[in-house]
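Students often ask why inverse folding is considered easier than folding. One informal answer: many sequences map to the same fold, so there is more than one right answer. In these notes we will look at a single instance of the problem. The structure comes first.
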């Protein structure tokens, strides 16, 4: 083997001080930045690639007097080898460091347990609001950049050292080895596939010059959005820092409440138990108003400040372990001011707190023995109660357990009893005991799963009358009435109880809908064909606390049957209401037990204001006055449309 085939060893390195290295960096800065730019992967993008190249070169300056590795120093040039290794020690030291950092910058994040600084986007240099990139070259430069992007980082480094620095294979081998490349020979061989001779002139073109740049603006809309987000984050950080710096525990433990998000004087005043409004026991007796606003604060825990603080905190910001519910149309937000305390006491192994803020009734309940495994820590229920009068504020649900419900009654309620509504006229009422705070004994709840064999209602005596209330799964029980919409009355006589006995099992359709009252009105009676008796037509209307979401149900009650048959229904319909009491409905009916060959009848009836009734579609015909009993040849296969005219001449269509 000829001695010419063996690279001459590099001379022993001598120490390089910082000043010498800085002078070399400043003198050769454009070449070093171009070298870093070529070694960096094109996947970084041209703007980040430019900034990273400048950052790597500037960070290559040593901090103290340094002795270069032996491979970093240029060796003796072989015969025929291009001149490029003969550089001073300072430049050789900086060049190796630039190559090493550029190779590290091309390693994807996640390949190391801890990323190196060169792998992260550079903090400096930075030009805010501008994107910087080299001037575009021609087709040859683009083709070369494409070929370089297909090489590994070590291959690009070998190509740049030979083409840009004009190093021979041996010198490039030594520099790559000093920069930490595990297999420099493979890197040099990889660079050979690009074609070094074709690219040497192109490497000096503006396409690869990160010191001769063009500037363009960044995405202006996104920059504006990021600016707003940064300001908001800064404000949030200031608020959070202020809160963290507050001494002590502030209000004290908040239980199941979420972490506080803000504090100000108005919020703290509303949530401080000291500021709760507590009405004296005798205020309701002399007040012009008779509603929740004059309920006294009752219960054995009205002075438990810790309990009241937890309840107020959870109301304001319920955490993830809170089982919260709200009737439709009820805003579940925090109180608008210091709320009124209605009740705080222990009910069925739970500590219960009831609040009223003028718009809503809020119930907070926490188990005395702690939350069950996997269950909610506390319960928080909201119910709308604006516009409540003496009847609407007669009672509140204070607890539910074992299919029973307990009520907290108003101070003006003189007596309470329960009655099975399905018993009709024969159903007897039974007294319900109350404690000194107004909490009733458990009463079976009709909301509990059943086959509608029992429907217990609460009868409260107040003043000169008795009101009938039923639990529909909400904090406020609904009032049951009977009679025309213009003058509904309480369910207190034999006829109204008989009608409700056949209507109660239809009430589950309006559970948990924010219902305030339900009125059942017998708007017509009709003699049935075949002389089997008289049927009753009833319209049941469920009014809500929010005004919208009204449910209307027309039902047909034939003699000798149980629950009435729903004939038609409507949502948010004015029918059967005080503003538009008119109603029209119909059903298909056949004499019970008459056999399969018995005829079908189209029965229809309207309220008193209806003058005529007619049918079209699957069956056609006209009734007599506001009733119709049309015998059909067969059961209609198409929908039947009912229409009529009022005595005033206006048209009316049936509920569907």
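Output (designed amino acids):
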């Amino acid at each position: 083997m000829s001695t010419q085939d063996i690279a001459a060893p590099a001379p022993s390195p001598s120490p390089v001080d910082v000043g010498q290295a800085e002078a070399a960096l400043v003198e050769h800065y454009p070449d070093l930045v171009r070298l870093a730019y070529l070694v960096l992967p094109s996947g970084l993008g041209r703007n980040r690639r430019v900034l990273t190249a400048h950052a790597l070169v500037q960070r290559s300056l040593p901090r103290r007097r340094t002795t270069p590795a032996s491979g970093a120093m240029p060796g003796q040039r072989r015969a025929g080898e291009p001149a490029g290794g003969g550089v001073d020690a300072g430049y050789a030291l900086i060049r190796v460091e630039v190559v090493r950092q550029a190779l590290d910058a091309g390693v994807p994040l996640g390949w190391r347990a801890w990323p190196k600084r060169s792998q992260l986007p550079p903090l400096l240099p930075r030009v805010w609001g501008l994107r910087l990139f080299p001037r575009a070259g021609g087709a040859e430069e683009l083709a070369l950049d494409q070929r370089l992007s297909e090489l590994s980082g070590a291959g690009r480094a070998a190509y740049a050292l030979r083409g840009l620095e004009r190093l021979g294979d041996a010198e490039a081998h030594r520099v790559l080895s000093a920069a930490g490349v595990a297999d420099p020979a493979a890197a040099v061989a990889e660079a050979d596939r690009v074609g070094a001779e074709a690219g040497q002139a192109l490497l000096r073109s503006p396409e690869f010059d990160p010191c001769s740049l063009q500037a363009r603006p960044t995405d202006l809309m996104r920059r504006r959005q990021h600016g707003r987000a940064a300001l908001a984050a800064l404000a949030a950080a200031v608020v959070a820092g202020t809160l963290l710096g507050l001494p002590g525990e502030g209000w004290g433990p908040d239980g199941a409440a979420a972490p506080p998000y803000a504090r100000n004087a108005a919020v703290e005043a509303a949530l401080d138990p000291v500021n709760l409004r507590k009405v004296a026991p005798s205020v309701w007796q002399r007040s012009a108003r008779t509603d929740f606003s004059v309920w006294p604060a009752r219960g054995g825990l009205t002075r438990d400040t810790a309990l009241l603080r937890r309840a107020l905190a959870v109301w304001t910001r319920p955490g993830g372990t809170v089982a919260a519910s709200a009737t439709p149309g009820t805003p579940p937000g925090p109180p608008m001011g210091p709320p009124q305390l209605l009740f705080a006491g222990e009910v069925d192994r739970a500590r219960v707190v009831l609040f009223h803020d003028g718009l809503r009734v809020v119930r907070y309940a926490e188990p005395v023995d702690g939350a069950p495994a996997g269950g909610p820590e506390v319960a928080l229920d909201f119910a709308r109660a604006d516009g409540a009068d003496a009847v609407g504020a007669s009672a509140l649900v204070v607890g539910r357990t074992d299919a029973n419900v307990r009520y907290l009654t108003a101070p003006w309620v003189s007596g309470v009893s329960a009655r099975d509504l399905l018993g009709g006229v024969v159903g007897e009422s039974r007294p319900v005991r109350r404690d000194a705070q107004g909490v009733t004994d458990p009463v079976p709840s009709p909301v509990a799963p059943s086959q509608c064999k029992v429907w217990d209602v609460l009868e409260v005596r107040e003043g000169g009358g008795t009101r009938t209330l039923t639990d529909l799964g909400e904090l406020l029980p609904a009032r049951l009435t009977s009679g025309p919409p213009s003058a509904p009355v309480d369910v207190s006589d034999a006829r109204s109880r008989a009608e409700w006995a056949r209507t109660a099992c239809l009430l589950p359709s309006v559970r948990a809908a924010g219902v305030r009252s339900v009125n059942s009105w017998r708007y017509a009676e009709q003699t049935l064909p075949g002389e089997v008796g008289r049927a009753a037509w009833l319209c049941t209307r469920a009014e809500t606390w929010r005004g919208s979401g009204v449910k209307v149900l027309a039902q047909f009650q034939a003699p000798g049957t149980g629950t009435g048959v729903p004939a038609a229904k409507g949502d948010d319909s004015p029918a059967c209401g005080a503003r538009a009491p008119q109603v029209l409905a119909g059903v298909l009916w056949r004499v019970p037990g008459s056999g399969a060959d018995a005829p079908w009848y189209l029965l229809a009836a309207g309220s008193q204001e209806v003058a005529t009734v007619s049918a079209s579609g699957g069956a056609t015909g006209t009734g007599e006055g506001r009733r119709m009993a049309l015998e059909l040849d067969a059961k209609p296969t198409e929908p039947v449309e009912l229409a009529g005219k009022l005595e005033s001449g206006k048209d009316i269509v049936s509920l569907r």
